[in-house]
Amino acid sequence: MAHVQKRTTQTGAVRYVVKWRTPDGKGRSKGGFATKKAAEDYATTVEYNANRGTSFDPKAGGFAFRQAAGEWLASRHDLKPRTHAEYANLLRPKTTGSLAIRALSIDATFGGYPLNAVTRKQISEWVRALTAAGKKPSTVRHAYFVVRMVLAQAVVDGRLTTNPADYVKLPTERSNAGGTPGVVDDPDMFLTAEQVTALVDVTPWPYNVLVHLAAWSGLRAAELAGLQVGDVELPAVAMNPNARPKPGTLRVERTVIAIDGKPTYDTPKTKGSRRRVPLTPATVAVLRDYLVVHPRGAEPMAPLFPAMRLVAAKRTGLRATDADGKRIGPKAEDALAALSVDEAEARLTLDWDTVLRHPTFYKAVYRPAVLRANLAGATLPPVLKFHALRHTYASLCVAAGIPPLELARFMGHAKVTTTLGVYAHLFEDDHADAMAALGAMATPATGENVVRLRLG
C-alpha cells in the first residue's frame, strides 16, 4: 500500500515523498512533490495500477460525464436494439415535459459534470428527487443503473478509482402505496369477463380484436403489435359437432420497439417470452372471422394488426371561447369517447402494410374506448391501463384452475416464482379440500374413531 511522508529539505522547504512496494516485494519511492495533494494523487495512481493492472491518470477524471456516456453506449455492441434504444433515450437531453422533470434527466443532472466531480451524495439526492417527483420505483432504478454502468466503465478505463454510484439506497419495488413489493394486488388491475366484453364492444374494429386478444391471451403490448398473420394457428373445423375442439395457438416470436421514432421488429423480451399460447374456443372463433376479412389474411408475414392514424375532425366553423377569448373545448380523449363506435371507426385510417405503434393506438383508440364504456354504463376503472388486460388474463386463468407452472409458461415468465410472486393473492385458498383429504388419510381402516396404541 502506498503512503505519503513529509520531508523538510536543508533549505527549510517542505516536500512530500510517496513510498510503496511492487508486487515482487521491492521498495519504491518518488519524491519532490511540493504539495500533499499532489503526492496523494500519485499514491492513488500507484495503488490503482497495482490493483487493476491498468494505467490511471487523475487528470482523466476531468472528462465530462456526457462524453463518457456517449463512448460507453457506443461500445455496448452486446445490447439488443430495444435495450440500446432505451439507454439512448435515457441519456439524451430532454426537450419535452415540464421544466422540473427535464431538470431531473440524466443529462441535465450529470451531463456537464467532470466524472471526478460526481459524488455519491449527488447521485443519492437525484434518486430522492426522482422519487419525490412521483417517478415509479422501477423507473428510478432503471435510470440509476444506467448512470452506474457509465461510471463503472470510467473506473475500468482508468478515469476514476471507485464508482460513486455504489452504495446508493434505492426505492423498493411496490405495486402501489403501502402494497407488498412486487405484488400486483390493486383491484383496478383486474377485470371480470363481463367487463372485458363491455370494453371490446365499444372499441372500433379491428382493434376490438386486439383488446379481446390482450385479455384472453395475456400478451404484452409490444408482443401484440409484433404478431403476424402466420403466428395464428387455428385448428381445422371439426366435422363432428359433438367433438371437443382443439385449442388454437398464438406463437410469440417478436415484439415491436421504436428506434428513432420508427416502429421496428425486435426479439422477445426474454428467452421465456418466446412461447406458444393456447387459445379458448371463443378466441379461436374471433380470430377465424377476423382473418377472413383481413386484407392480407393469406400472407403469413403480414402484420396481424395494422398501423393507424386519426383523421382530424371536420371543422364546424364555431369556436367556443372563454372570457379572455381563448379557445376552450373537451380534451381529445373525451371528444373521441363521445363518438359512437361506428363514428370512432370512421375516424381511423388503417395501414395494413405497417406495424402498429402502441402509443398511437393507446391515445386514439384504447383510452377513448375505456371512457366510452363507462359512458355506456360499464364500471371500468377510469384510469384502466392497457397492461391491466395482461393482469386480467392471469386472474381469469387462476379462476379457471390453471396451475401456476402452466400460467407462467403462458405468460412468458422465466420462472414460476415470478408468477407466484406477482399474483400471490390470486392463489389464496382456505385449504378446506386439502385438509379434508389429509384428514381422510388419518382415518383408521377399522372405522373406529380410536387410535390404537402399541403397548410394551
Characterise the protein shown here.
With 456 residues, the protein is an alpha+beta fold. The chain folds into three domains: 3-56; 62-156; 187-313 and 330-427, hpI Integrase, Chain A, CATH 1.10.443. Helices cover 41% and strands 12% of the residues. The chain is built from 18 helices and ten strands. 28% of the residues are buried.
Quick structural summary:
The protein is of the alpha+beta class and 456 residues long. 41% of the residues lie in helices and 12% in strands.
| Overall CATH class of the largest domain | Mainly Alpha
Distance between the termini: 74 Å
Mean pLDDT: 85
Label the CATH architecture of the largest domain: Orthogonal Bundle
Kindly identify the CATH topology of the largest domain.
Answer: hpI Integrase, Chain A
Q: If you compute it from the alpha carbons, what radius of gyration comes out, rounded to the nearest whole angstrom?
A: 31 Å
**Would you list the SSEs in sequence order as H and E?**
EEEHHHHHHHHHHEEEEEHEHHEHHHHH
Keywords:
456 residues, alpha+beta, hpI Integrase, Chain A, 3 domains, 3-stranded antiparallel β-sheet, 18 helices
Provide the fold topology.
Layout: E1 3-8, E2 14-21, E3 27-33, H1 36-52, H2 65-75, H3 81-91, H4 99-103, H5 106-110, H6 120-132, H7 137-156, H8 193-201, H9 207-217, H10 221-225, E4 232-233, E5 248-252, E6 255-259, E7 262-266, E8 275-279, H11 281-293, E9 306-310, H12 332-337, H13 341-346, E10 348-355, H14 358-375, H15 388-399, H16 404-411, H17 416-422, H18 432-441
Antiparallel strand pairs: 1-2, 2-3, 4-5, 5-8, 6-7, 9-10
Helix pairs in contact: 2-3, 2-7, 6-7, 8-9, 8-14, 9-11, 9-15, 16-17
